[in-house]
Write a structure and sequence with these properties.
The structure is a homodimer of 314-residue chains.
Chain A lengths: L5 H11 L8 E2 L2 H7 L2 E6 L9 H10 L3 H6 L1 E4 L3 H13 L3 E6 L4 H9 L3 E5 L3 H15 L2 E2 L6 H7 L1 H9 L5 E5 L4 H13 L4 E7 L4 H8 L21 H10 L2 E5 L1 H15 L5 H12 L1 H4 L3 E6 L12
Parallel strand pairs in A: 2-10, 3-4, 3-6, 4-5, 7-8, 7-10, 8-9
Antiparallel strand pairs in A: 1-2
């Protein structure tokens, strides 16, 4: 199993810089006061397609040889990775094929279609997604870009925290959400190299705590139809991701649905920015573990901002 | 009638710089594409208290002599100006007295109370507000800081566009919303001095078009209980404001409630930022007058971001 290193992340950053937004790092005095610590929010909700996923997808697409690229790329995704791969492919001028579950949020279906992807809908199970995608790949010769269990994708996701550490010095903790582990594994590699003393923590919904249990038990627990508002964090850990997380992550904390909604609302109301529920999970874990974070300088990666405005939890 | 000049605005900017946020100017490729022009959004929704009103209030509070300041400041306001004056007063360490209509949005009442103001509620009419405030001022000797019909407040509001023009060159149009006219009059003075060729346009809800009619007819039409979602734009023009607007504004355009909601939603979804309905009015007028703006570089002042998340129009 070949794992990406910090060198791969730096190379990814050079490759994707012309295509991604360098997103801002925002702070909120009122949230700092409420939480008793100093928070630095890396706003990947402002990234292209509204999520950090554009970093990994762009690295994967622009790493292809011309011959590989000509056949196109494909993936299955519940949304943000699909939009990201579709846009990255369109920017390079190649075809993308997206397998989406039939129950994906409407706003994400529209976004993916709007980026010019070829969409195939399937049953909302991991098995159905994988089989449908494999069939397409066999037929068309396309390169499958897995949403998180992929060397190039992990390298791309690690670039968000490269920018965060460039901009904010002296971070004592960095926290991001964990679903499949793409963002977390990339973040962990970057943090370990840039700032070995900085603790790397993941936030996960209590209602979808497969990563927490996997990290504790030393093997991957599958994520079986979890029910959480954080719809970007439903999947199981990938193998590459788990190996990196085992080696480089300090702790996985969980948060209740109630805390996730409260954290989301706090960020909307105090910072006037729109984040999706998955992005609120790190702040929710801080809310539930205040003592652990008192007085610390903490980087939080806000993973995305794609929500259906007609279905808010407030 | 002494009107502020650009020199007063520059002096205000120097005075308030240590206390205000320098808000970012954001752009959205997807909104530009949809609208057929190039838009630069000055994000006063990220200003302290969530609105541009903090600029004028801070200028008014910090312009007071120590003796004046000791007696405190007072105002009547439907919300953002109240929060702004309360915070500015607290920052200077003086008392503030706020007269609010009993039907003000809950989120604004909470904000004002949170900034340590002394609040008096009254009937939701302009007359009741003014009488209640005058009684307090007579009793306590406080300085009344009118939300918009005030020299120092206008000078402060004009600083938002000073920053906008500093950051974005070659603007052909600047648009802001108009209610009482504080932001519009300040913006107009700045724009005329910095970039005489730049058109100054105001956006107003069709359902509260008193400024449109006043501008057309040459005298102030009162705003009589208008019903619009843009709850920051309910009041009539002030006399100082109207005089400045007559001299320096090129055009007032109106927008339907439907367009205001559509524009608000477009900014939320595409830019991932939270704006209040009043802030969406300029984009709504562009939506309704696309031909007038095609291909132009346009500055829009997003006036604020205070909304009750449980009462969204989507």
């Amino acid at each position: 199993m070949q794992l990406p290193t910090f060198t791969d992340i730096l190379a990814a950053h050079e490759l994707i810089k012309p295509y991604i937004h360098r997103t801002p790092v925002l702070t909120s005095q009122s949230i700092n006061k409420l939480m008793g610590c100093e928070l630095f929010f890396k706003c990947e909700n402002f990234q292209k397609v509204g999520a950090f996923k554009f970093r990994g997808a762009t690295n994967a697409v622009y790493s292809l040889s011309d011959a590989e690229a000509a056949a196109g790329v494909g993936t299955h995704s519940s949304g943000n990775h699909a939009a990201a791969l579709a846009l990255a492919a369109r920017m390079r001028g190649i075809q993308s094929y997206i397998v989406m579950p039939s129950n994906a949020p409407e706003v994400k279906k529209i976004a993916v279609a709007g980026y010019g992807a070829n969409i195939t809908f399937c049953e909302p199970t991991l098995q159905a997604r994988e089989q449908t995608l494999q069939r397409l790949a066999d037929e068309l010769g396309l390169t499958i870009v897995h949403p998180y269990n992929n060397f190039r994708v992990i390298s791309g996701q690690g670039t968000a925290s490269v920018e965060l550490f460039e901009e904010v010095h002296g971070l004592e903790v960095v926290i991001c959400p964990v679903g499949g582990g793409g963002l977390l594994s990339g973040t962990a590699i970057s943090a370990r190299s840039i700032s070995p003393g900085c603790r790397v923590i993941a936030g996960e919904p209590k209602a979808a705590d497969d990563a927490f249990r996997s990290f504790r038990d030393g093997y991957i627990h599958p994520s079986i139809q979890p029910q959480t508002i954080a719809d970007g964090l439903l999947t199981s850990l990938g193998e590459l991701n788990f190996e990196i997380i085992r080696q480089n992550v300090d702790e996985i904390l969980t948060a209740s649905e109630e805390s996730i909604v409260a954290a989301m609302r706090m960020i909307w109301e105090r910072m006037k920015i729109i984040i999706e529920p998955s992005s609120a999970v790190p702040l929710a874990t801080i809310m539930e573990n205040r003592d652990k974070f008192t007085g610390l300088r903490i980087g939080i990666i806000l993973s995305g901002g794609n929500v259906e405005l007609t279905k808010l939890p407030f």
